[in-house]
């Protein structure tokens, strides 16, 4: 249960599981917004970064609040028809980290709004974009605490050296997501 800021009443939290090319993605949220997206831990990379039709809600489809419907639609599009994600609404978020005014929130919103599909940005570049050029380490901390991976695309943040860097879902998943986006962007070009 997550307490909302207004009045402190607990949310009616719902859970949805989306079967994706990466495995089971667990999404939780309420009527107000998405709380978090939990990525599966991967030890083997799925074959190919091709979009696949295999991306379905397998649990929790009944009584899904609107933010979860939007979230699953967005993720399904991301994996299956990436060109359409730009035209879909980004679901509302209702995680405490994204409610408070903080540098982490600023970094996550900047990443969501400014770093587009198929692009990558260094920790330092993202710190610049978020308004504090000397905060590359703080950007790293913000990426580690991102409750909404993939939609808030922390996988697009890489080291200045070009090395992919760390990722909450693991190195293999980060490389798969970057390859998936690169492939789709080339197809659209």
TrEMBL record:
EC number annotated for this UniProt entry:
2.1.1.63
Cell compartment(s), UniProt: Nucleus
Entry-linked InterPro entries: MethylDNA_cys_MeTrfase_AS, MethylDNA_cys_MeTrfase_DNA-bd, MethylDNA_cys_MeTrfase_DNAb, MethylG_MeTrfase_N, MGMT_N_sf, WH-like_DNA-bd_sf
Output the GO biological process annotations, alphabetical, semicolon-separated.
DNA repair; methylation
Taking the first listed entry, what is the main subcellular location of this protein, grouped into a coarse class? nucleus
Q: Pfam families under this entry?
A: DNA_binding_1, Methyltransf_1N
Keywords tagged on the record? DNA damage, DNA repair, DNA-binding, Metal-binding, Methyltransferase, Nucleus, Phosphoprotein, Transferase, Zinc
Q: Does the keyword Plastid apply?
A: no
A GO CC term attached to the entry: nucleoplasm
Catalytic activity, as annotated = a 4-O-methyl-thymidine in DNA + L-cysteinyl-[protein] = a thymidine in DNA + S-methyl-L-cysteinyl-[protein]; a 6-O-methyl-2'-deoxyguanosine in DNA + L-cysteinyl-[protein] = S-methyl-L-cysteinyl-[protein] + a 2'-deoxyguanosine in DNA
Residues annotated as domain Methylguanine DNA methyltransferase ribonuclease-like: 20-91
Q: What class of enzyme is it?
A: transferase
Q: Which cofactor does it need?
A: Zn(2+)
Q: Which domain of life is it from?
A: Eukaryota
Q: What does this protein do?
A: Involved in the cellular defense against the biological effects of O6-methylguanine (O6-MeG) and O4-methylthymine (O4-MeT) in DNA. Repairs the methylated nucleobase in DNA by stoichiometrically transferring the methyl group to a cysteine residue in the enzyme. This is a suicide reaction: the enzyme is irreversibly inactivated.
Looking up PANTHER family in the UniProt record yields: METHYLATED-DNA--PROTEIN-CYSTEINE METHYLTRANSFERASE
Return the protein name: Methylated-DNA--protein-cysteine methyltransferase
Q: Which organism is it from?
A: Peucedramus taeniatus (Olive warbler)
Source lineage = Eukaryota, Metazoa, Chordata, Craniata, Vertebrata
Name of encoding gene:
Mgmt
């Amino acid at each position: 249960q997550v307490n909302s800021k207004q009045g402190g009443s607990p949310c009616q939290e719902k859970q949805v599981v989306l079967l994706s090319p990466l495995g089971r993605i667990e999404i939780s949220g309420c009527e107000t917004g998405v709380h978090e997206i939990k990525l599966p831990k991967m030890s083997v990379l799925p074959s190919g970064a091709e979009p696949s039709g295999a991306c379905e809600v397998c649990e929790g489809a009944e009584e899904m609040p609107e933010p979860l419907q939007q979230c699953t639609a967005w993720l399904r599009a991301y994996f299956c028809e990436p060109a359409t994600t730009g035209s879909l609404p980004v679901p509302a978020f209702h995680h405490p980290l994204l409610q408070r005014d903080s540098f982490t929130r600023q970094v996550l919103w900047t990443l969501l709004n400014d770093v587009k599909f198929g692009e990558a940005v260094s920790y330092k570049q993202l710190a610049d974009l978020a308004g504090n050029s000397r905060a590359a380490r703080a950007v790293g901390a913000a990426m580690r605490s991102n409750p909404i991976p993939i939609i808030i695309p922390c996988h697009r943040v890489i080291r200045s050296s070009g090395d992919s860097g760390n990722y909450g879902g693991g190195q293999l998943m980060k490389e798969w997501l970057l390859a998936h986006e690169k492939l789709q962007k080339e197809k659209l070009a």
